[in-house]
Design brief:
single chain, mainly alpha
């Protein structure tokens, strides 16, 4: 019974964090604070790329961060914008990684336990190939303009440690921001 209470409390805590982050994101958008931060970040060039990179990782701030990174890349070096943006994105991803990595996997496995086909899915989740597939898919999601939370959640299945996650996050975010810069330069 104690284990179920812990799991329920953990699930409620996760839901509370999501609700709180949505609430904060809505406040940032409504008060235009996020817009002001990102506009001022454009003027700071490399530091601005770092700040916009931090915002590039979250579902709630991805769109304005993409616009900001594109504008910074248009006015500056695409490679430097991607380099500093990726560094900021790693900081944002580590924060998300700490919250999501293990909990997402645990909650999904808990849901699978209660299903009739749960045993087959549980075996699938433990396969080495499935872990590599989730590793690849997670990395591609991080590189894409899609929010990193989903990619990081998928990486939780590969049981990746923080020190292996950092270079992966940097590489895929660098590629994603570089592509944003290239598209912005051509427009």
């Amino acid at each position: 019974m104690s284990t179920n209470n812990h799991k329920n409390n953990s699930l409620l805590q996760d839901a509370g964090i999501v609700v709180l982050s949505i609430f904060i994101a809505v406040i940032l958008v409504k008060t235009k604070v996020l817009t002001e931060i990102l506009i001022s970040a454009q003027e700071l060039k490399l530091l601005g790329s770092f700040i916009a990179g931090m915002f590039f990782t979250s579902v709630f701030t991805t769109a304005p961060a993409i616009v900001t990174l594109g504008e910074i890349a248009r006015a500056n070096s695409i490679v430097l914008t991607a380099l500093f943006g990726a560094m900021g994105a790693v900081v944002g991803d580590i924060i998300i990684f700490r919250f999501i990595r293990d909990r997402f996997s645990e909650h999904l496995l808990e849901l699978v336990k209660h299903q009739g086909a749960g045993k087959r899915v549980k075996v699938l989740l433990k396969l080495k190939y499935f872990r590599w597939l989730t590793f690849l898919m997670g990395g591609l999601i991080i590189a894409s303009p899609f929010p990193d939370e989903l990619g990081i959640g998928l990486l939780g299945f590969s049981k990746m440690g923080t020190w292996r996650f950092i270079p992966l996050s940097f590489t895929f975010n660098f590629i994603g921001i570089l592509l944003i810069g290239l598209v912005a330069k051509t427009l």
